[in-house]
Amino acid sequence: MDYVIVGNGGAGLTAARTLRDLDPAASITLVDEETYPCYYRMRLPDYICGWKDRDSVFFVRQEFYQEKDLHLLGGRRVTRVVPENHRVELEDGETLSYDRLLVASGANPRVLPVPGSELDGVVYLRTLDQAEDIIRRGREAKEGVVLGGGLLGVELARCFNELGLRTHYLIREDRFWPQMLDATGSALVEEVLAEKGIILRKEEGIGEIRGSEGKVRSVLTSSGKELAADMVGVAIGVTCNLDFLEGSGVETRQGVLVDDRLRTNVEGIYAAGDVAQAYDPVLGEHRVVTSWLNALRQGEAAARNMAGEEVTLGGVVPFNVIVIYGLPVASVGQDEASAPEAEVIRVHIPEERKYRKFLLKDGVLAGANLVGSTADAHALETLIRRQVKVRGLADKVARRDFDARALVRELGLA
Fold this sequence. Notes:
Radius of gyration: 22 Å
Number of helices: 10
Distance between the termini: 35 Å
Strand content: 25-35%
Largest sheet: 5 strands, parallel
CATH superfamily of the largest domain: FAD/NAD(P)-binding domain
CATH class of the largest domain: Alpha Beta
Number of strands: 26
CATH architecture of the largest domain: 3-Layer(bba) Sandwich
Shape: globular
Number of domains: 3
Helix content: 10-25%
């Protein structure tokens, strides 16, 4: 059996490892534009800040591929998929034949569409090379501006700040991460940022990036204020890598549309990770969920189905966990905007800088936010994904000592 995997991130690497365990004699080839072994993207900010060394970024070492007899084509780009011939074409003209193909091509940062966005000094953070570039620039930069009110935006602001830049952090909304956190949860994060010296500017975007001799010199904000900048960090979302699927017949929307076995509409082709648009049982629709947990889970499920097993994913649930200057923050499942009919239960413990919010629908957990402690995050994700109706759930989650992990064990879901 010949397996080809487009992508060497969490989903692609997990799929390759699973396939090798299931099929010791198979030919397994991974194709990736980067030349590195698989690494943790979420550790890049800590590497930039100097809190972790470079080696800690890697998920596996180069030797792993030899040990598992995995053929990694690094620094190569797929340009076309031809399902009728079971063939993948690479930019350099090489072709690969496959019996089963996994699309795990991930996503790229969304480019800021304003004048000056092409200037030297405008940076994004998705790859190890981009992290290295930010470290290099940070040695000389003095002034930094970051745009992006979500998790990567705040991570970039932390990076700039730790590199010694005077950092203005621009959020286009009225608070940090409003898509997931309410005013109370956002305020706790904003307090920490202020304590660390990050200058937060809410309801402020970038109208223009100004420069001289091709390099960034300042940012003109949406309100007309000019801020000095040697480096501008942009984190306004991602777009799935889908270009090479054009003309293949594989159905795409925001990502590659898959069923609960990670199959596309074209026989023999599967998708997993940040590029896959899978079913969300809470929302009742297909959506792209970009998280390491989902990438690993989808990569394994896709591989098992590619190898002939019949494994269902059980849907995807948004799952984000981050630590912002020592303050743990997690968001799991739906937010209030997408669940206006949900019962909302809040538990605020200000003296401990802790806050929890739960969304319930008829005794079923639909979403949760955790600030100050994220120990229950995985257990809450299990409850949301399994859509288990729990008697007296509202009373349980309202208790200060609520333990989601104990509840999962009690329900036999662990």
